[in-house]
Amino acid sequence: MMRRLTAALILTAISGPAIASDVSSKAKTADYEFSYGYPAAATRIAGLKNWLDADRARLQAKTARDGAAARREARKAGYPYRRYSFDKSWKLVTQTPRFLSLSGDSYDYTGGAHGSPASYGLVWDKRAARRLEPKSVFGSGAALQAAVRTDYCARLRAEQRRRNQGSVSSMNVCPPVKDLTLLLGSSNGRAIDRIGLIADPYVAGSYAEGAYEVTLPVTRSIIAAVKPEYRGAFAARR
Q: Is the pTM of this model over 0.90?
């Protein structure tokens, strides 16, 4: 089984020590296995906690429903049932005065040769008390693409060559930002000064290559691509 995705690069030196009161729930039946977790920091924001709990309930209900249906079909067809499973975990990337930023990863197994990993980004705007998709803090996808593409592609190619003994992946040499998971990070807890870009399997390489993660410093060009109402929450990395 492939290791679940983690935002390892952008999380380095941001999250700090593990918190003992992180929230975690697990279930296991004949039909399915399920686990879901999120950090303690999220429990202190009622709106965010409510959304995460609703997300957990929705995903568990779907996994239970799909697993039960697949088990019935396997019994009718007379072949062994491979229990469905779904695992999703959120981690704290950073907190700044304006934002709480989370990274998420999941692994969905529905009886095939292997499961499907995926990554997610989530931002809670403390001032507006609402959940945001990280890309929505930027004025347009085109502006963000123009601001990061050169640096991102260079760093991605270097990682592809390192992972593939000098070769660049044949899948997609440098995918557009719209196909990537975006994370907002901070080195100091005061402002967003770095971003993470995650290419899930099949986006920038084969399944066997796994996810490609690149962390970029926030530059003036990136700040210029941010919507005016959020620009004050960012700072160029020195």
A: no
